Amino acid sequence: MTKLPHPIPYQGSKRSLAPMIGRYIPRGVATFYEPFAGSAAMTIFAAHHRLAERFVVADSLEPMVDLLRSIVEEPDRTAARYREVWEGQRPGELGYFNEVRDRYNSGRDPVDLLYLICRCVKNAIRFNGGGRFTQSVDKRRLGMQPDKMRGAITGVSAILRGRTEFRVGDWKDTAADSGPGDFVYMDPPYLGTSI
After folding, report:
1. DSSP-derived secondary structure letter, 65
2. How far apart are CA 139 and CA 141, in angstroms?
3. Is-contact 167 25, C-beta < 8 A?
4. Which three-class secondary structure state does DSSP give residue 112?
5. Which of 84, 140, 145, 174 is most buried (most C-beta within 10 Å)?
6. How far apart are alpha carbons 90 and 88 in whole angstroms?
7. Does residue 42 register a pLDDT over 90?
């Protein structure tokens, strides 16, 4: 099996568990729904292994859906913009991360968010009640190199482009049109903590 592309390093991602989880996905799925997408690790796995014809990537966190849409639908622009943002940093200079974070919080550019996720502490994204990204910089690393990121972005786009729909909202709404031939992968991040 070739290595799956994953442009979004995301705490809680199922990318390493996907092969084990994937054994329980039935074959011949019409539409694969991932209503708690995060980094969309299970969608990427299912698409790579041709487990479904169509995909619905959804999350209640709109910035993540915007980022995933940008990766799938505009891979060249997204990769080029990531290189531009990544190359703006200098080793040992921590203020740049804060500049990008402020810029993201003002303009909501999905590629700024990708850089922030790649550089923040433990890849653990945090937003406040007003929707502002609040996590701080990880001082030990610079984030994914632009060439590696381009490969991951174009890889994900190649397997999902033209057969993926992006939705923002509560899982009950984003998966409401699923039917008997579909598969809804339920992996709520709050399971066991608040419900």
Report:
1. H
2. 6
3. no
4. helix
5. 174
6. 7
7. yes
Under a CB-based contact definition with an 8 Å cutoff, are residues 6 and 153 in contact?
no
Sign of the torsion formed by the C-alpha atoms of 2, 38, 124 and 7: positive
Whole-number percent of the chain with pLDDT over 90: 74
pLDDT tens, residue by residue, 65-119:
999 999 999 999 999 999 999 999 987 787 999 999 999 999 999 999 999 999 9
* 113 backbone dihedrals φ, ψ, rounded to 5°: -65, -40
Number of residues that this document lists for the chain:
195
Using alpha carbons only, give the angle 74, 78, 82 rounded to the nearest 5 degrees: 175
Residue 157 Cα to chain centre, angstroms: 12
The two counts, helices (H) then strands (E), for the chain are 8, 4
The whole-angstrom separation of Cα 163 and Cα 54 is 5
Which pLDDT does position 1 carry in this prediction? 40
Which tokens go with 156? 């994900």
Buried b (16+ CB within 10 A) or exposed e, 79-96: bebbbebbeebeeeeeee
CB atoms within 10 A of CB 57: 25
pLDDT higher than threshold 60 for residue 192? no
Q: Which residues contact 107 (CB under 8 A, 6 or more apart)?
A: none
Helix (H, G, I), strand (E, B) or coil at 35: coil
Closest CA to 98 of 106, 58, 54, 49: 106
